[in-house]
Amino acid sequence: MNITFHGAAQSVTGSCFLVEAHGCRFLIDCGMAQGGREADEHNQQAFAFDAAGLDFVVLTHAHIDHSGLLPKLVAQGFKGPIYVTLATKDLLEVLLKDSAHIQMMDAERAARRQREGKRREREPAVPLYSLAHVASTLEQVQAMPYRHSFKPHPAVTVCFQDAGHILGSAIVELWLADGHGGSRKLVASGDLGQPGRVILRDPTPIMDADLLLIESTYGDRQHRSTGDTLEELVDVVTRTVPHGNVVIPAFAVGRTQELLYHFLQLIQQQRLPPVEIFVDSPMAVAATDITLRHFSVFDEEARQLLGSVKRLKESPHIHFISDVEDSIKLNRIRSGAVIISASGMCDAGRVLHHLKNNLSRPECAVVICGFQAEGSLGRRLVDGARLVRLLGDEVEVRAGIHTLGGFSAHADQQALLDWAAAFTRPPQQTFVVHGEPQASRALAALLHERLHFSVQVPQPGQVFEF
């Protein structure tokens, strides 16, 4: 058996792992790299493997950094099934169509700027794939429930377990025939959620594995408590809205719904005034509807609060914006608004227009509440950039930039270690993936020192044979 790390090796995005065993070749994830020029170049490159020769794909969850190159895979000849959870199937249709649309708009903008003699070298001239490729991809998707074993190939058995990261996120258990009548078990954590968060269940403990792939997005740090994070959010919003706006770049799936949950609770508790909240993202609106259809996978607290969550769509203070004209009208609002808009790393989508209209105003605030990949606009804001390029123009950063790490949907260092400690014996080999080098190395060291795991931090493209 071989595993090749084609993505998310010493980086957070672009998850893609090729597994070859006993005449079977399949991928775990096929994600898009995100964050800057190198990510764009990576996405444009040809796959380092034969797409047509793959038997199937197993997808951990719907986020674009795990799913975003599936239509490109299909465009290059992959015709096999794509196995996902039930909720992931619903979300994929929304996310992949949005991804294709953004690429088309970016290519049109690049062509227009080229005609004007203003095009920058990194601006993509051709989309990675079309809506037709997305439609073909969705036809190949096969949904499976949690805790249900299935055989995508005679030599492979798969089971999805709840990862608690976003709606439909999965830990993947795979049993691969060893050629001697037995099997070896490979576990891919996908992205693990932080225990104790609202709405979703905690990540499922896994007891045994021969080989383990574990994420490390926050492998070198702890999150602030939810209580402290909410206090900071209340402070930022209360100080800002009398004179300006609060812009929150947020992932449309997961982060937006959690923020709305907290805003509704804070307003009901009178910890916040009844501020006007605008969710300006067609994808987030669709994802919220999907979220409300999948309460069977939520934790007990969330099910008990079903009535409150359903009031998200009915609250007079929460406005869901899909129409472009309604989105443009938000530019006229000078104060009193909280604008939640995708994308979460500020690299595409409507949030760019809201940043362009509010970043230069010192009376406004930008709240960063998720991981920002190296090279992304969000990362540059967090790192203190005073001048950024937005939609072709230079914009001075005068608004307050606030990072609220406690809203992360990823497990922090201690939560990752606690999840790994559930194994009854150390896996024969553990690979730390889906993290920047410092975070991956920090988690690898602790897994070795505290849990006695045999650990590797793979290089991009590295092959391991077992």
Automatic annotation (TrEMBL):
Keyword list, A-Z: Hydrolase
CDD domains: TTHA0252-CPSF-like_MBL-fold
Record protein name field: Ribonuclease TTHA0252
A GO molecular-function annotation: RNA endonuclease activity
EC number: 3.1.-.-
InterPro entries for the chain: Beta_Casp, MBL, Metallo-B-lactamas, RibonucZ/Hydroxyglut_hydro, RMMBL
Location of the Beta-Casp domain: 256-381
Residues of the Metallo-beta-lactamase domain: 13-243
